[in-house]
Amino acid sequence: MMRLAMVILWPSFLVAIVQEGFFFSIFDPRDLAMIYGDVDISPKAAYTIGFFIFWTFSALAGMLTYYLAFTPNDGHSKRVRL
Known about the structure:
By secondary structure, the protein is mostly helical. Helices cover 73% and strands 0% of the residues. It has a domain at 10-66.
């Protein structure tokens, strides 16, 4: 089970780093605070929250990919092992 978690969490961690780099190179956290109104959040907190959001969505995509790749759709499909 620990290996399965690392197969999903480690690549999603690396992808979240790249996603955050791209996102925050386009958008400034202070500009995003103006969009949401009265939210008073520091840029460091915005980077942290953004990273965990990106990591969560990347992990969900990884879990869905793993599920679809390793769940047989009928009795004739072969199961691939990691």
